[in-house]
Amino acid sequence: MTEEIDILIVGAGFAGMYALHRARKLGLKAKVFEAASDVGGTWWWNRYPGARCDIESLQYSYSWDDDLQQDWNWTERFATQPEILRYLNHVADRFDLRRDIIFNTRVQSATYDETARRWIARLDEESPVSTHFLILAVGCLSSAQIPDFPGRDEFGGETYHTGYWPHEGVDFSGKKVGVIGTGSSGIQVIPEIARKAAYLTVFQRTPNFSIPARNQPLDKTFVQGWKSSYPELRRYAREETPSGTIYDWPSCSALDVDPEEREREYRWRWEKGGVNFSHSYNDLSVNERANTTAANFVRDRIQATVKDPETAEDLCPRDYPIFCKRICLDTEYFETFNRHNVDLVNLRKTPLEAIERQGIRTSDGLHELDTIVYATGFDAITGAITAIDIRGRDNRSLSDKWAEGPRAYLGLASEGFPNLFMITGPGSPSVLSNVIVSIEQHVGWIADLLYHMSEQGNDEVEAQRDAEDAWVAHVNEVAGATLLPRAASWYMGTNIPGKPRVFMPYIGVANYRKKCQEVAAAGYTGLTLSKKTASG
Ligand code: NA7
What we know:
This protein is an alpha/beta fold. It has 16 helices and 20 strands. Strands 1, 2, 3, 4, 5, 6, 17 and 18 form an eight-stranded mixed β-sheet that branches. It has a five-stranded parallel β-sheet with strand order 7-16-8-9-12, covered by helices on one side. Helix 1 packs parallel to helix 14, helix 7 packs across helix 16 and helix 9 packs antiparallel against helix 10.
């Protein structure tokens, strides 16, 4: 039997949980389907040692319920994965969300029935579900990737991916461990493994810029200050910042000040720790000369920290501008390479040739290992969407439509796929924002649209082709005015062989929000809202 509901939400992370809450407020029958066995999304899967958010906990949290934000007490400046998961469990209990979440169930496909104006979703084992609206809350970094290294399956020891970490944890004591990948996940997990393993070999293809997090316990007075000002701080983050996050925003160019003053500015931000460093000046992401001053500062810190000069040089990024790949935050990452049980293998000098039964072979020989940890990232932003076989009008597949790169109006809806919404989809600020701010904005905007549709008696909404094309061009134009497309990054899809090279996120939270508000105020321009007639 096919169950009939109003809204099917895929994913029970921050986005899906809030979408469920808002759907209930609209009086709609909503269900969430989640592949994991509990809530949390990204934070359910990524439980490797050292996993921690890189946005401050007082900002990386829901703002939609004041009692919730007043009652919950974050304990650290940057919350650990277990603490974020505890928070999401608390939210699930507090708002009784679990009764409408079906766990351990993956949505395999969704097909639009143009006559009924409904989606039919097929699930792992259960009967199909018919839903009026389909909301993809699948996360931007949830489709973990292990590159197709020759001999990958031949390895005789244990293997793990940071994005699929076992719940019972991993005991590295006495082990020879290899980590492949030095993005945010690698940079967080490497110091932790180094402290436990007998020997750690880090296999690095591209060095990354990383800033010390300088995590610390949160001071009660500081927290109280935030809580008492939450309404204004949240409003400011949403409406007036480029990233939905409050930093010490700069007022001038890095080139407007003399080198001594610039050094002082970089140094105090470096000592303060966190992503604040990225916002030292207002042109670091658009002006190459300005950017180089910050990159040089970080390279100098790496050289000053890492004792072996060759290792230090191997750890220095030299072939792309700083801030053009996601900046990493670390706790003693570079210091880890001063340990006697840690070795860095620069895969640019000695490429990885194969994985063998006993370890990893590079061009300079076999590195014998008991355990390999893949910190090799994700098919970001689109991977978890295209993993579902989504078929819209005329049975057209979304993956086919996106073969040359993702296309979505406002990153929310794609022409040919009516009544389907993406939360933090390609073409929205998503990963270039405090993603909770973006999630709340998307869910709120969709809820307002659904309310508007029911008031007007409409039952179908679809992005218009022209509006979508114009939006995709705009996303590219905004990105093209910055240095960001200059780096090979998962923002561009370059980490996945064969993925189209398209800059996917929209740069600018406040501008994006204004644009969405204008669209809604003008009666949802760029979208066709319609009502089924007797003739269909
Ligand atoms: P990232 O940032 O995509 O990092 C993946 C790392 O794995 C990166 O260093 C890659 O090197 C490396 N990698 C990927 N494929 C290969 C191959 N084939 N050979 C060698 N090395 C490889 O993923 P993370 O999980 O660290 O972080 C993702 C986001 O999650 C992060 O920004 C936070 O927002 C949370 P490359 O740079 O491609 O040369």
